[in-house]
Amino acid sequence: MSKILIIGACGQIGTELVLELRKLKGAENVIAGDVRDECPAILADGPYVKMDILDRAFVREYIIENHVDEVYLLAALLSATAEKNPDFAWRLNMEGLFTILDLAKEKYVKKIFWPSSIAVFGPTTPRYNTPQYTVMEPSTVYGISKQAGERWCEYYFNKFGVDVRSIRYPGLISYTSLPGGGTTDYAVDIFYQAKLKKDYTCFLRDDSALPMMYMADAIRATIELMEAPAEKVRVRSSYNLSGCSFTPAQLTAAIRVHRPDFNVSYVPDFRQQIADSWPASIDDSSARNDWGWKEHFGTAEMVEIMLENVDPSKLN
Ligand code: NAD
Ligand code: SER
């Protein structure tokens, strides 16, 4: 059985990816790694290593000594947080990627998953049904780092045969772990506030359409891409992936089906400019054709699950 290491395992995606991979591969084969001191209780059934992806020597030694075959590199600063600390965001989002790509080039690591984002697109990209190949002029430090990362992934695949696979995730919606500082976080926050009280102040305009996805779909897509035969993975930069797209007003309306007295007001902040530079919807036909991607969750189902499962005590 392959040894798998997930770096950034305590975050919104990592927590659920570790849980799902442990179900499939056995808890002892899936190591959760994160810069946080403590392993969260939810991941305590398997190995945990405190590691800083920027500590190249430690990461290299750990991966080589523990015979890690596959790495999921999730540690990054997301769009909103990155805008507040661009130098560090560039460093964190790029340096760790080189550490892992180099370990694969040297044949220590056999397969890498590295997530990209809809943030690779920019204001000059066609906004609707954004194609796999199109104009990409990102205007955020996060988007620039993801676009550069995609180029390096493709380069290491072409030059050194590194088996690196990637998805341009849309905004991800989940209840197990809180989101970590993105522009799409409103679409998670809103459920906590719908459960806690009857109103919410949204930091985006009511008509800001963005591509989104329920976490279970994102985790399944990630594992399906990683398990696809190598010859089917024709895109070695990163795959467009689509779940559901909606505006804050449409999400509010879907919540009001279950909570008719819930009200949202709109006070856009700096994140509006980021949202305005991103696509409203995504064409993911390459993922569908190459490795058979298909989403399972639409907005209405996602809303029902979120309202049932979000736990506002997590906000404390
Ligand atoms: P998150 O912020 O929730 O989690 C990131 C995790 O990385 C945290 O647990 C953090 O402690 C850890 N981390 C931070 N610095 C580290 C370091 N130096 N060394 C080791 N670990 C470190 O992020 P997420 O939402 O889970 O996103 C994971 C990846 O997916 C990121 O690369 C992000 O860009 C990408 N992505 C996420 C979304 C989304 O909507 N969540 C969308 C598109 C792309
Ligand atoms: N959800 C992410 C963000 O808003 C998209 O990459 O930053």
Structure report:
Helix 2 (56-65) runs parallel beside helix 4 and helix 6 packs parallel to helix 8. The mean pLDDT is 97. The chain has helices at residues 12-25, 56-65, 79-84, 86-105, 141-160, 186-196, 215-227, 248-256, 271-276, 285-291, 299-309, and strands spanning 4-7, 30-34, 48-50, 70-73, 111-113, 116-117, 164-165, 167-169, 171-173, 199-202, 210-214, 239-240, 244-246, 263-266. The relative contact order is 0.14. The longest helix has 20 residues, at 86-105. A six-stranded parallel beta sheet has the order 3-2-1-4-5-7, with helices on both faces. It has a three-stranded parallel beta sheet with strand order 6-8-12. The protein has a three-stranded mixed beta sheet with strand order 9-11-13. It folds into two domains: 3-169 and 215-240, Rossmann fold (3-Layer(aba) Sandwich), CATH 3.40.50.720; 171-212 and 243-315, NAD(P)-binding Rossmann-like Domain (Rossmann fold, 3-Layer(aba) Sandwich). Helix content is 40%, strand content 15%. The protein is globular, with a radius of gyration of 19 Å. With 316 residues, the chain is of the alpha/beta class. The protein is built from eleven helices and 14 strands. Residues 78-79, 117-119, 142, 171, 182-184 line the site of serine.
